[in-house]
Amino acid sequence: MSEYYNIIQELTSKISPSLVDFSVPRDKGRIPTQASSNFITNKEQGDWAEDVLFRAINELSNNIVAVRYGKSDDIIAGEDGFNEFYESYQQELDEIGKRPDLLLFKKEDYDESLGNDISQIPHTDILKYVKKAIAGIEVRSSAFLIDKYDEIMCSNTHRNINNIIETREIILNNYRDLLEETPKRQQYINILESITENNIHIINFKSPTWRSSDRLTELSTLFKKIKEALKEIQKRDYLSITPKVEDLKVVNKWIETTGVPHYYVQVFFDKIFGISFEKILRIISDTDNEDRYFSVEADEKNQNKTTIKINTKAGICIASRVEEPTHNSVRKEMNRGRLMFYVHFNGGNAYLDTEMFESLFDNKL
């Protein structure tokens, strides 16, 4: 086994089994029975993200070639042949793991006879070739402008912090006498006086519901205002790189099969971020990093599958400019005359930063 594989295995052994138990075989997915318009739109967005990165890499370098590799077909749940495709895909996951969407080859190792799309070639026919790749890239997409998101979240956080501090001063200056009347209320003085900008993300208390006098009612309303502002501040305030928990095992299996280093790349509509699979494992193996560099959530976009949200700031911005695609509505007729309408994306470009792109791969390109 390669040195890289040994590093990955050491890291997987440090991850809590309650998050991912690598000693237990993966759960095989159930065959979906019907796709939705939202699912197809998300798939189209993912296909666009892969295409824009594929084109950007091949336009960037004369030494590196990006090749399409990931298992993907236009067939969807509910169409003829989907069940057979799905079963074949599940079998391949068990045999070699999950193919990353793209492979990067050095120019001298690139096989022109196979071309830049080997996604439909059986893995048994290309495994020796695949092992020559210098990196595998799993492409994820996000329907956000990350700069706009960060700007709004930063503004909201500052506004809520100011609201909390101002409301706290109103309570302590105008209602302290009520809080000092009983030992139970006195505890709220201690809570208010302990609030700082450094600990405001972890402060928690039960909001009182006093109603026995007009002033107590007013005081309860002020505490409710603080509680609501705290709730907003304590939400996850970053966009993320999003590996699904269920994928970690099959990515690990692919690394075992090929020994090729693996990376995640998240494509936003204005920037692109990347992170190595190795770094993801290092982050999630340290429980102190939870709620700081990552969170674990059910992702609506991914059929509520449990997803690890890695703060993009833990990754590397490999493209600080992305041109948005054009888009159009598409009508799709399913069996039995069922109609679905979804969004198709066309064009768009990403402009990779050569230095940052190479640093993502530890300058091995």
Structural overview:
The structure is a single chain. The chain has 365 residues and is of the alpha+beta class. It folds into 2 domains: 3-144 and 240-360, Trna Endonuclease, Chain: A, domain 1 (3-Layer(aba) Sandwich), CATH 3.40.1350.10; 149-233. Helix content is 41%, strand content 19%. It is built from 11 helices and 12 strands. It has helices at residues 3-12, 37-60, 82-96, 123-130, 146-174, 176-179, 183-194, 214-233, 245-258, 277-284, 354-360, and strands at residues 64-68, 102-106, 135-141, 240-241, 262-267, 272-276, 294-299, 305-311, 316-323, 326-333, 339-346, 349-352. The strands form 3 sheets. The chain has a 7-stranded mixed sheet. It has a 3-stranded antiparallel sheet with strand order 4-8-7. A two-stranded antiparallel sheet has the order 10-11. Helix 5 (146-174) runs antiparallel to helix 8. The protein is elongated. The two termini are 22 Å apart. The mean pLDDT is 91.
List the helices and strands and how they pair.
Layout (H helix, E strand, L loop, with lengths): L2 H10 L24 H24 L3 E5 L13 H15 L5 E5 L16 H8 L4 E7 L4 H29 L1 H4 L3 H12 L19 H20 L6 E2 L3 H14 L3 E6 L4 E5 H8 L9 E6 L5 E7 L4 E8 L2 E8 L5 E8 L2 E4 L1 H7 L5
Parallel strand pairs: 3-5
Antiparallel strand pairs: 1-2, 2-3, 4-8, 5-6, 6-9, 7-8, 9-12, 10-11
Helix pairs in contact: 1-10, 3-9, 5-8
CATH architecture of the largest domain: 3-Layer(aba) Sandwich
Using only C-alpha atoms, the radius of gyration works out to 25 Å
How much is the average pLDDT?
91
Tally of separate helices = 11
Strand and helix order: HHEHEHEHHHHEHEEHEEEEEEH
Taking pLDDT < 50 over at least 5 consecutive residues as the criterion, the unreliable ranges are none
Name of the CATH class of the largest domain: Alpha Beta
